[in-house]
Amino acid sequence: MSARSETFRGAPGTSEAFRGDLDLDGDTLREECGVFGIYGHPDASAIVALGLHALQHRGQEAAGIVSFDGRVFHSERRMGLVGDSFSDLATIERLKGETAIGHVRYSTTGETILRNVQPLFAELETGGLSVAHNGNLTNGLLLRRQLVRDGAICQSTSDTEAILHLVARSRHVRIVDRVMDALRQIEGAYALVMMTNKKLIGARDPLGIRPLVLGELDGRYILASETCALDIIGARFVRDVENGEMVVISDEGIESIRFARAQPLRPCIFEYIYFARPDSIVNGKNVYSVRKNIGVELAKESPAEADIIIPVPDSGVPAALGYAQQTGLPYELGIIRNHYVGRTFIQPTQSVRELGVRMKHSANRAAVEGKRIVLVDDSLVRGTTSVKIVRMMREAGAREVHFRIASPPITHPDFYGIDTPEKEKLLAATHDLESMRRYIGADSLAFLSIGGLYRAMGEEGRDAACPQYTDHCFTGDYPTPLTDLAVASPRRMAILAEAD
Protein backbone atom coordinates (compact mmCIF):
# COMPACT_ATOMS: atom_id res chain seq x y z
CA MET A 1 0.00 0.00 0.00
CA SER A 2 1.09 3.59 -0.44
CA ALA A 3 2.51 5.57 2.45
CA ARG A 4 0.00 7.60 4.41
CA SER A 5 0.65 10.72 6.42
CA GLU A 6 -0.51 10.32 9.99
CA THR A 7 -2.22 13.22 11.70
CA PHE A 8 -4.36 13.66 14.78
CA ARG A 9 -7.98 14.39 13.87
CA GLY A 10 -8.37 17.21 16.34
CA ALA A 11 -9.92 17.25 19.79
CA PRO A 12 -11.27 13.82 20.74
CA GLY A 13 -14.63 13.21 19.16
CA THR A 14 -14.27 15.80 16.40
CA SER A 15 -13.86 15.00 12.76
CA GLU A 16 -11.80 16.21 9.87
CA ALA A 17 -13.09 19.17 7.92
CA PHE A 18 -15.92 18.29 5.56
CA ARG A 19 -14.42 17.21 2.24
CA GLY A 20 -17.38 18.38 0.20
CA ASP A 21 -17.78 15.09 -1.68
CA LEU A 22 -21.14 13.72 -2.70
CA ASP A 23 -21.04 10.39 -0.94
CA LEU A 24 -24.41 9.76 0.72
CA ASP A 25 -22.56 7.94 3.49
CA GLY A 26 -20.38 10.96 4.23
CA ASP A 27 -22.88 12.82 6.40
CA THR A 28 -23.59 10.12 8.95
CA LEU A 29 -22.56 9.58 12.54
CA ARG A 30 -19.87 6.95 12.93
CA GLU A 31 -19.03 4.93 16.01
CA GLU A 32 -15.46 4.24 16.91
CA CYS A 33 -15.24 0.46 17.14
CA GLY A 34 -16.37 -2.93 18.37
CA VAL A 35 -14.62 -5.46 20.62
CA PHE A 36 -14.80 -9.22 21.07
CA GLY A 37 -12.91 -11.79 23.14
CA ILE A 38 -13.14 -15.44 24.16
CA TYR A 39 -11.24 -17.43 26.78
CA GLY A 40 -10.19 -21.07 26.64
CA HIS A 41 -11.80 -22.25 23.40
CA PRO A 42 -9.90 -24.45 20.89
CA ASP A 43 -11.29 -22.40 17.97
CA ALA A 44 -10.73 -19.04 19.66
CA SER A 45 -9.44 -17.01 16.70
CA ALA A 46 -12.04 -18.35 14.27
CA ILE A 47 -14.79 -17.49 16.74
CA VAL A 48 -13.38 -13.99 17.24
CA ALA A 49 -13.31 -13.48 13.47
CA LEU A 50 -16.98 -14.47 13.24
CA GLY A 51 -17.82 -12.16 16.13
CA LEU A 52 -16.05 -9.28 14.41
CA HIS A 53 -18.04 -9.96 11.24
CA ALA A 54 -21.21 -9.39 13.28
CA LEU A 55 -19.74 -6.16 14.69
CA GLN A 56 -18.55 -4.84 11.32
CA HIS A 57 -21.15 -2.05 11.42
CA ARG A 58 -19.25 -0.50 14.34
CA GLY A 59 -16.10 0.08 12.29
CA GLN A 60 -15.05 -0.56 8.71
CA GLU A 61 -11.59 0.98 8.46
CA ALA A 62 -9.49 -1.73 10.08
CA ALA A 63 -9.64 -4.97 12.04
CA GLY A 64 -7.30 -6.97 14.23
CA ILE A 65 -7.02 -10.14 16.30
CA VAL A 66 -4.46 -11.09 18.95
CA SER A 67 -4.31 -14.64 20.33
CA PHE A 68 -2.27 -16.47 22.99
CA ASP A 69 -1.20 -20.10 22.66
CA GLY A 70 0.06 -20.62 26.21
CA ARG A 71 3.56 -19.45 25.34
CA VAL A 72 3.46 -16.82 22.58
CA PHE A 73 1.09 -14.01 21.59
CA HIS A 74 0.14 -13.85 17.90
CA SER A 75 -1.13 -10.68 16.19
CA GLU A 76 -2.77 -9.97 12.85
CA ARG A 77 -3.85 -6.36 12.28
CA ARG A 78 -5.04 -5.25 8.88
CA MET A 79 -6.61 -2.30 7.11
CA GLY A 80 -10.06 -2.84 5.64
CA LEU A 81 -12.99 -5.10 6.41
CA VAL A 82 -12.93 -8.25 8.50
CA GLY A 83 -13.80 -10.42 5.52
CA ASP A 84 -10.88 -9.03 3.53
CA SER A 85 -8.30 -10.38 5.99
CA PHE A 86 -9.79 -12.91 8.37
CA SER A 87 -11.78 -15.26 6.15
CA ASP A 88 -8.91 -17.40 4.93
CA LEU A 89 -7.80 -20.48 6.83
CA ALA A 90 -4.09 -19.61 6.69
CA THR A 91 -4.60 -16.38 8.64
CA ILE A 92 -6.70 -18.07 11.32
CA GLU A 93 -4.17 -20.88 11.65
CA ARG A 94 -1.42 -18.32 12.35
CA LEU A 95 -3.49 -17.02 15.26
CA LYS A 96 -2.84 -20.00 17.48
CA GLY A 97 -4.20 -20.48 20.95
CA GLU A 98 -7.36 -20.91 22.98
CA THR A 99 -7.75 -17.28 24.02
CA ALA A 100 -8.12 -14.36 21.61
CA ILE A 101 -9.46 -10.82 21.41
CA GLY A 102 -10.42 -8.75 18.39
CA HIS A 103 -11.33 -5.26 17.31
CA VAL A 104 -13.00 -3.42 14.43
CA ARG A 105 -12.15 0.23 14.08
CA TYR A 106 -13.47 3.54 12.90
CA SER A 107 -11.01 6.19 14.01
CA THR A 108 -11.85 9.36 15.89
CA THR A 109 -8.71 9.95 17.96
CA GLY A 110 -6.00 8.77 15.60
CA GLU A 111 -5.63 8.44 11.87
CA THR A 112 -6.25 4.92 10.66
CA ILE A 113 -2.84 3.55 9.81
CA LEU A 114 -1.52 0.17 10.77
CA ARG A 115 0.18 1.15 14.02
CA ASN A 116 -3.12 2.52 15.34
CA VAL A 117 -5.04 -0.64 14.52
CA GLN A 118 -6.09 -2.59 17.60
CA PRO A 119 -5.76 -4.72 19.63
CA LEU A 120 -2.61 -3.02 20.88
CA PHE A 121 0.03 -5.18 22.57
CA ALA A 122 2.85 -4.52 25.03
CA GLU A 123 5.30 -6.66 26.98
CA LEU A 124 5.06 -5.61 30.62
CA GLU A 125 6.88 -6.64 33.77
CA THR A 126 4.01 -9.01 34.50
CA GLY A 127 3.98 -10.45 30.96
CA GLY A 128 2.18 -9.63 27.74
CA LEU A 129 -0.95 -7.47 27.69
CA SER A 130 -3.21 -6.83 24.70
CA VAL A 131 -6.00 -4.24 24.76
CA ALA A 132 -9.03 -3.55 22.54
CA HIS A 133 -11.02 -0.40 23.28
CA ASN A 134 -14.42 0.91 22.22
CA GLY A 135 -15.01 4.54 23.12
CA ASN A 136 -12.99 7.65 23.76
CA LEU A 137 -11.06 8.98 26.74
CA THR A 138 -11.84 12.60 27.51
CA ASN A 139 -8.53 12.96 29.38
CA GLY A 140 -6.51 10.82 26.98
CA LEU A 141 -4.49 13.72 25.59
CA LEU A 142 -3.60 15.02 29.05
CA LEU A 143 -2.55 11.55 30.17
CA ARG A 144 -0.48 11.10 27.04
CA ARG A 145 1.37 14.36 27.58
CA GLN A 146 2.09 13.47 31.19
CA LEU A 147 3.33 10.04 30.17
CA VAL A 148 5.58 11.42 27.44
CA ARG A 149 6.92 14.05 29.83
CA ASP A 150 7.84 11.21 32.20
CA GLY A 151 9.72 9.35 29.47
CA ALA A 152 7.09 7.15 27.83
CA ILE A 153 7.63 6.40 24.14
CA CYS A 154 4.32 6.32 22.27
CA GLN A 155 4.09 4.28 19.08
CA SER A 156 0.55 5.31 18.06
CA THR A 157 -1.78 8.29 18.25
CA SER A 158 -4.58 6.22 19.78
CA ASP A 159 -5.80 7.15 23.26
CA THR A 160 -5.88 3.41 23.98
CA GLU A 161 -2.08 3.38 24.22
CA ALA A 162 -2.30 5.55 27.34
CA ILE A 163 -4.11 2.68 29.07
CA LEU A 164 -1.22 0.32 28.31
CA HIS A 165 1.28 2.81 29.74
CA LEU A 166 -0.79 3.34 32.89
CA VAL A 167 -0.94 -0.41 33.50
CA ALA A 168 2.80 -0.72 32.87
CA ARG A 169 3.66 2.09 35.30
CA SER A 170 1.42 0.92 38.12
CA ARG A 171 3.32 -0.16 41.24
CA HIS A 172 0.86 -2.92 42.09
CA VAL A 173 2.04 -6.51 41.81
CA ARG A 174 -1.02 -8.29 40.41
CA ILE A 175 -2.12 -7.49 36.88
CA VAL A 176 -5.74 -7.14 38.00
CA ASP A 177 -4.72 -4.45 40.50
CA ARG A 178 -2.63 -2.72 37.85
CA VAL A 179 -5.58 -2.61 35.48
CA MET A 180 -7.84 -1.21 38.20
CA ASP A 181 -5.21 1.42 38.97
CA ALA A 182 -5.25 2.46 35.30
CA LEU A 183 -9.05 2.49 35.09
CA ARG A 184 -9.28 4.84 38.03
CA GLN A 185 -7.13 7.38 36.18
CA ILE A 186 -9.05 7.52 32.91
CA GLU A 187 -12.17 9.52 32.11
CA GLY A 188 -14.77 9.29 29.38
CA ALA A 189 -16.46 6.36 27.69
CA TYR A 190 -14.96 2.92 27.27
CA ALA A 191 -15.64 -0.75 26.93
CA LEU A 192 -12.34 -2.61 27.21
CA VAL A 193 -11.37 -6.17 26.46
CA MET A 194 -7.87 -7.14 27.63
CA MET A 195 -5.89 -10.35 27.41
CA THR A 196 -2.91 -11.50 29.46
CA ASN A 197 -1.17 -14.85 29.43
CA LYS A 198 -3.61 -16.10 32.08
CA LYS A 199 -6.72 -13.94 31.93
CA LEU A 200 -9.37 -12.32 29.78
CA ILE A 201 -10.49 -9.02 31.32
CA GLY A 202 -13.47 -6.83 30.44
CA ALA A 203 -14.28 -3.40 31.84
CA ARG A 204 -17.04 -0.86 31.27
CA ASP A 205 -16.90 2.84 32.14
CA PRO A 206 -18.56 4.04 35.37
CA LEU A 207 -21.65 5.35 33.54
CA GLY A 208 -21.91 2.46 31.09
CA ILE A 209 -21.84 4.85 28.13
CA ARG A 210 -20.37 2.20 25.83
CA PRO A 211 -21.92 -1.30 25.80
CA LEU A 212 -20.26 -4.59 26.77
CA VAL A 213 -21.92 -7.98 27.22
CA LEU A 214 -20.91 -11.31 28.68
CA GLY A 215 -21.73 -14.52 26.84
CA GLU A 216 -21.00 -18.25 27.03
CA LEU A 217 -20.23 -20.85 24.36
CA ASP A 218 -19.46 -24.49 25.16
CA GLY A 219 -18.74 -23.50 28.76
CA ARG A 220 -16.27 -20.77 27.72
CA TYR A 221 -16.88 -17.10 28.45
CA ILE A 222 -17.10 -14.37 25.80
CA LEU A 223 -16.98 -10.58 25.95
CA ALA A 224 -18.50 -8.56 23.10
CA SER A 225 -19.81 -5.09 22.26
CA GLU A 226 -23.26 -6.39 21.26
CA THR A 227 -25.44 -9.47 21.60
CA CYS A 228 -25.59 -9.85 17.80
CA ALA A 229 -21.97 -11.04 17.97
CA LEU A 230 -23.07 -13.81 20.36
CA ASP A 231 -25.96 -14.80 18.12
CA ILE A 232 -23.79 -15.32 15.06
CA ILE A 233 -21.76 -18.02 16.82
CA GLY A 234 -24.66 -19.59 18.71
CA ALA A 235 -23.47 -18.34 22.10
CA ARG A 236 -25.73 -17.75 25.09
CA PHE A 237 -26.19 -14.25 26.42
CA VAL A 238 -25.33 -14.24 30.14
CA ARG A 239 -25.70 -10.58 31.13
CA ASP A 240 -24.51 -7.06 30.50
CA VAL A 241 -21.24 -6.09 32.10
CA GLU A 242 -22.32 -3.47 34.61
CA ASN A 243 -21.17 0.11 34.59
CA GLY A 244 -18.02 0.50 36.67
CA GLU A 245 -17.48 -3.28 36.66
CA MET A 246 -14.43 -5.29 35.70
CA VAL A 247 -14.87 -8.99 34.94
CA VAL A 248 -11.84 -11.29 35.14
CA ILE A 249 -12.05 -14.64 33.33
CA SER A 250 -9.46 -17.31 34.01
CA ASP A 251 -9.10 -21.06 34.57
CA GLU A 252 -10.63 -20.48 38.01
CA GLY A 253 -13.85 -19.14 36.46
CA ILE A 254 -15.18 -15.60 36.42
CA GLU A 255 -14.70 -12.87 39.02
CA SER A 256 -16.57 -9.58 39.20
CA ILE A 257 -14.82 -6.52 40.63
CA ARG A 258 -16.27 -3.04 40.99
CA PHE A 259 -13.54 -0.49 40.34
CA ALA A 260 -15.72 2.65 40.52
CA ARG A 261 -18.33 3.86 42.96
CA ALA A 262 -21.90 2.83 42.20
CA GLN A 263 -23.91 5.36 40.21
CA PRO A 264 -26.92 5.19 37.91
CA LEU A 265 -26.42 3.61 34.51
CA ARG A 266 -26.41 6.21 31.73
CA PRO A 267 -25.79 4.47 28.37
CA CYS A 268 -25.38 6.33 25.09
CA ILE A 269 -28.81 6.88 23.57
CA PHE A 270 -27.33 6.76 20.06
CA GLU A 271 -26.81 3.02 20.45
CA TYR A 272 -30.59 2.74 20.15
CA ILE A 273 -31.05 5.40 17.48
CA TYR A 274 -28.25 4.41 15.14
CA PHE A 275 -25.18 2.43 16.20
CA ALA A 276 -26.26 -0.96 17.49
CA ARG A 277 -27.47 -3.57 15.04
CA PRO A 278 -31.28 -3.80 15.05
CA ASP A 279 -31.20 -7.42 16.25
CA SER A 280 -29.08 -6.60 19.31
CA ILE A 281 -30.32 -6.32 22.88
CA VAL A 282 -28.67 -3.31 24.55
CA ASN A 283 -29.10 -2.95 28.30
CA GLY A 284 -32.18 -5.14 28.18
CA LYS A 285 -33.90 -3.31 25.31
CA ASN A 286 -34.40 -4.72 21.81
CA VAL A 287 -32.95 -2.15 19.43
CA TYR A 288 -35.38 -2.92 16.60
CA SER A 289 -38.40 -2.46 18.86
CA VAL A 290 -37.05 0.82 20.20
CA ARG A 291 -36.50 2.15 16.68
CA LYS A 292 -40.03 1.22 15.65
CA ASN A 293 -41.33 2.91 18.80
CA ILE A 294 -39.35 6.01 17.83
CA GLY A 295 -41.18 6.03 14.50
CA VAL A 296 -44.52 5.71 16.28
CA GLU A 297 -43.74 8.67 18.54
CA LEU A 298 -42.50 10.70 15.57
CA ALA A 299 -45.78 10.05 13.73
CA LYS A 300 -47.80 11.10 16.77
CA GLU A 301 -45.86 14.33 17.11
CA SER A 302 -45.38 15.22 13.44
CA PRO A 303 -47.89 13.65 11.02
CA ALA A 304 -47.94 14.79 7.41
CA GLU A 305 -50.53 14.92 4.64
CA ALA A 306 -48.89 12.35 2.38
CA ASP A 307 -49.41 9.26 0.26
CA ILE A 308 -46.47 7.00 1.23
CA ILE A 309 -43.71 6.58 3.83
CA ILE A 310 -40.15 6.02 2.57
CA PRO A 311 -37.16 5.10 4.74
CA VAL A 312 -33.69 6.47 4.13
CA PRO A 313 -31.78 3.16 3.98
CA ASP A 314 -30.68 1.42 5.99
CA SER A 315 -30.80 3.07 9.40
CA GLY A 316 -34.16 4.77 8.84
CA VAL A 317 -36.02 1.54 8.08
CA PRO A 318 -37.36 0.53 11.54
CA ALA A 319 -38.46 4.08 12.39
CA ALA A 320 -40.18 4.39 9.01
CA LEU A 321 -42.03 1.14 9.68
CA GLY A 322 -43.25 2.49 13.00
CA TYR A 323 -44.27 5.78 11.38
CA ALA A 324 -46.20 3.95 8.66
CA GLN A 325 -47.97 1.68 11.13
CA GLN A 326 -49.01 4.61 13.30
CA THR A 327 -50.31 6.69 10.40
CA GLY A 328 -51.77 3.84 8.36
CA LEU A 329 -49.96 5.08 5.26
CA PRO A 330 -48.26 2.61 2.90
CA TYR A 331 -44.58 1.85 3.48
CA GLU A 332 -42.59 1.82 0.25
CA LEU A 333 -38.94 1.41 -0.73
CA GLY A 334 -38.49 4.66 -2.58
CA ILE A 335 -34.70 4.59 -2.27
CA ILE A 336 -32.78 1.50 -3.31
CA ARG A 337 -29.34 0.96 -1.83
CA ASN A 338 -26.62 -1.03 -3.58
CA HIS A 339 -24.85 -2.94 -0.80
CA TYR A 340 -22.05 -4.13 -3.07
CA VAL A 341 -20.40 -0.77 -3.69
CA GLY A 342 -17.63 0.38 -1.39
CA ARG A 343 -16.06 3.81 -1.52
CA THR A 344 -16.64 5.78 -4.70
CA PHE A 345 -13.34 5.07 -6.37
CA ILE A 346 -13.27 7.63 -9.21
CA GLN A 347 -14.18 11.24 -8.43
CA PRO A 348 -12.25 13.51 -10.80
CA THR A 349 -15.13 15.84 -11.62
CA GLN A 350 -18.39 17.05 -10.15
CA SER A 351 -20.43 15.12 -12.69
CA VAL A 352 -18.63 11.85 -11.96
CA ARG A 353 -19.05 12.40 -8.22
CA GLU A 354 -22.78 12.71 -8.85
CA LEU A 355 -22.66 9.37 -10.68
CA GLY A 356 -20.86 7.88 -7.67
CA VAL A 357 -23.86 8.78 -5.52
CA ARG A 358 -26.20 6.93 -7.84
CA MET A 359 -23.99 3.83 -7.66
CA LYS A 360 -24.84 3.59 -3.95
CA HIS A 361 -28.39 4.95 -3.75
CA SER A 362 -30.98 5.38 -6.45
CA ALA A 363 -34.58 6.48 -6.50
CA ASN A 364 -37.33 3.97 -7.17
CA ARG A 365 -39.26 6.14 -9.62
CA ALA A 366 -42.21 3.75 -9.85
CA ALA A 367 -42.87 4.17 -6.11
CA VAL A 368 -42.16 7.90 -5.91
CA GLU A 369 -43.47 9.58 -9.05
CA GLY A 370 -46.49 11.79 -8.51
CA LYS A 371 -46.65 10.98 -4.77
CA ARG A 372 -46.56 13.10 -1.64
CA ILE A 373 -43.86 11.32 0.32
CA VAL A 374 -42.58 11.27 3.90
CA LEU A 375 -38.88 10.52 4.14
CA VAL A 376 -37.82 9.09 7.52
CA ASP A 377 -34.15 9.25 8.52
CA ASP A 378 -32.46 8.48 11.83
CA SER A 379 -30.64 11.81 12.27
CA LEU A 380 -29.54 15.03 10.61
CA VAL A 381 -25.91 16.08 11.07
CA ARG A 382 -24.56 18.59 8.57
CA GLY A 383 -27.61 18.25 6.35
CA THR A 384 -25.63 17.64 3.17
CA THR A 385 -27.01 14.11 2.79
CA SER A 386 -30.57 15.33 3.29
CA VAL A 387 -30.13 17.90 0.53
CA LYS A 388 -29.09 15.17 -1.91
CA ILE A 389 -31.88 12.81 -0.92
CA VAL A 390 -34.58 15.46 -1.27
CA ARG A 391 -33.17 16.43 -4.65
CA MET A 392 -33.11 12.77 -5.71
CA MET A 393 -36.77 12.35 -4.74
CA ARG A 394 -37.85 15.45 -6.62
CA GLU A 395 -35.93 14.37 -9.72
CA ALA A 396 -37.79 11.03 -9.48
CA GLY A 397 -41.09 12.89 -9.68
CA ALA A 398 -42.15 13.25 -6.03
CA ARG A 399 -44.92 15.86 -5.78
CA GLU A 400 -44.13 16.79 -2.17
CA VAL A 401 -41.25 15.78 0.10
CA HIS A 402 -41.80 15.86 3.86
CA PHE A 403 -38.72 15.06 5.94
CA ARG A 404 -39.05 13.46 9.38
CA ILE A 405 -36.02 12.90 11.62
CA ALA A 406 -36.24 10.04 14.15
CA SER A 407 -34.19 11.88 16.79
CA PRO A 408 -34.02 15.39 18.25
CA PRO A 409 -31.83 18.07 16.61
CA ILE A 410 -28.10 17.42 17.08
CA THR A 411 -26.78 20.67 18.54
CA HIS A 412 -23.61 19.60 20.36
CA PRO A 413 -20.55 17.54 19.37
CA ASP A 414 -19.64 14.23 20.94
CA PHE A 415 -16.44 13.45 22.85
CA TYR A 416 -17.10 9.81 23.77
CA GLY A 417 -16.29 7.92 20.58
CA ILE A 418 -18.83 9.21 18.04
CA ASP A 419 -17.26 11.02 15.10
CA THR A 420 -19.25 14.27 14.96
CA PRO A 421 -18.35 17.63 13.43
CA GLU A 422 -17.52 20.66 15.51
CA LYS A 423 -20.56 22.54 16.79
CA GLU A 424 -20.41 25.20 14.09
CA LYS A 425 -20.73 22.49 11.41
CA LEU A 426 -23.85 20.93 12.94
CA LEU A 427 -26.81 22.25 10.98
CA ALA A 428 -29.19 22.32 13.96
CA ALA A 429 -26.67 24.27 16.02
CA THR A 430 -26.56 27.14 13.52
CA HIS A 431 -30.04 27.16 11.92
CA ASP A 432 -33.61 27.31 13.15
CA LEU A 433 -36.17 24.79 11.92
CA GLU A 434 -37.43 26.89 9.01
CA SER A 435 -33.96 27.71 7.72
CA MET A 436 -33.05 24.02 7.97
CA ARG A 437 -36.14 23.15 5.94
CA ARG A 438 -35.18 25.65 3.26
CA TYR A 439 -31.59 24.41 3.25
CA ILE A 440 -32.50 20.78 2.57
CA GLY A 441 -35.30 21.75 0.18
CA ALA A 442 -38.16 19.84 1.82
CA ASP A 443 -41.80 20.91 1.92
CA SER A 444 -41.80 20.32 5.67
CA LEU A 445 -39.27 19.23 8.29
CA ALA A 446 -39.79 17.88 11.80
CA PHE A 447 -37.64 16.24 14.47
CA LEU A 448 -38.61 13.90 17.28
CA SER A 449 -38.74 15.75 20.60
CA ILE A 450 -36.48 14.74 23.46
CA GLY A 451 -39.61 13.76 25.38
CA GLY A 452 -40.79 11.60 22.49
CA LEU A 453 -37.39 9.90 22.34
CA TYR A 454 -37.56 9.00 26.02
CA ARG A 455 -41.12 7.77 25.67
CA ALA A 456 -39.98 5.51 22.84
CA MET A 457 -37.38 4.15 25.26
CA GLY A 458 -40.15 3.22 27.68
CA GLU A 459 -39.66 6.16 30.03
CA GLU A 460 -42.30 8.66 31.11
CA GLY A 461 -39.88 11.40 30.12
CA ARG A 462 -36.37 12.66 30.64
CA ASP A 463 -35.36 13.08 34.27
CA ALA A 464 -33.45 16.37 34.12
CA ALA A 465 -32.00 15.85 37.60
CA CYS A 466 -30.71 12.36 36.79
CA PRO A 467 -30.94 11.64 33.04
CA GLN A 468 -31.47 8.00 32.18
CA TYR A 469 -29.25 8.16 29.07
CA THR A 470 -26.22 9.98 27.76
CA ASP A 471 -27.87 12.44 25.38
CA HIS A 472 -25.49 15.40 25.26
CA CYS A 473 -25.65 15.70 21.44
CA PHE A 474 -29.25 16.87 21.91
CA THR A 475 -29.09 18.56 25.29
CA GLY A 476 -25.49 19.70 25.86
CA ASP A 477 -25.56 17.77 29.15
CA TYR A 478 -22.15 16.05 29.15
CA PRO A 479 -22.03 13.37 31.86
CA THR A 480 -18.25 13.46 32.53
CA PRO A 481 -15.52 16.11 32.69
CA LEU A 482 -14.15 17.09 29.27
CA THR A 483 -10.61 17.49 30.50
CA ASP A 484 -8.89 17.53 27.12
CA LEU A 485 -10.84 20.59 25.94
CA ALA A 486 -8.60 22.65 28.20
CA VAL A 487 -5.45 21.16 26.68
CA ALA A 488 -3.74 22.83 23.74
CA SER A 489 -4.48 21.50 20.27
CA PRO A 490 -3.26 17.93 19.70
CA ARG A 491 -2.30 18.91 16.15
CA ARG A 492 1.12 19.71 17.62
CA MET A 493 1.79 15.99 17.78
CA ALA A 494 4.55 14.68 15.55
CA ILE A 495 3.60 13.52 12.09
CA LEU A 496 5.07 10.32 10.73
CA ALA A 497 4.55 9.02 7.23
CA GLU A 498 4.25 5.24 7.25
CA ALA A 499 3.74 2.58 4.64
CA ASP A 500 0.78 0.43 5.73
TrEMBL record:
Co-factor: note: Binds 1 Mg(2+) ion per subunit.
E.C. numbers: 2.4.2.14
CDD domains xref list: GPATase_N, PRTases_typeI
Keyword Repressor listed: no
Gene3D superfamilies attached to this UniProt entry: 3.40.50.2020, Glutamine Phosphoribosylpyrophosphate, subunit 1, domain 1
Keyword Metal-binding: yes
Highest taxon in the source lineage: Bacteria
GO biological process assignments: 'de novo' IMP biosynthetic process; purine nucleobase biosynthetic process
Catalytic class of the enzyme: transferase
InterPro entries hit by this protein: GATase_2_dom, Ntn_hydrolases_N, PRTase-like, PRTase_dom, PurF, PurF_N
Active-site residues from the entry: C33
Recorded GO MF terms: amidophosphoribosyltransferase activity; magnesium ion binding
Domain Glutamine amidotransferase type-2: 33-252
Catalytic activity: 5-phospho-beta-D-ribosylamine + L-glutamate + diphosphate = 5-phospho-alpha-D-ribose 1-diphosphate + L-glutamine + H2O
Cofactor: Mg(2+)
Role this protein plays: Catalyzes the formation of phosphoribosylamine from phosphoribosylpyrophosphate (PRPP) and glutamine.
HAMAP family: PurF
NCBIfam families per the UniProt record, alphabetical: purF
Homology family: In the C-terminal section; belongs to the purine/pyrimidine phosphoribosyltransferase family.
Entry protein name: Amidophosphoribosyltransferase
Native organism taxonomy: Bacteria, Pseudomonadati, Pseudomonadota, Alphaproteobacteria, Hyphomicrobiales
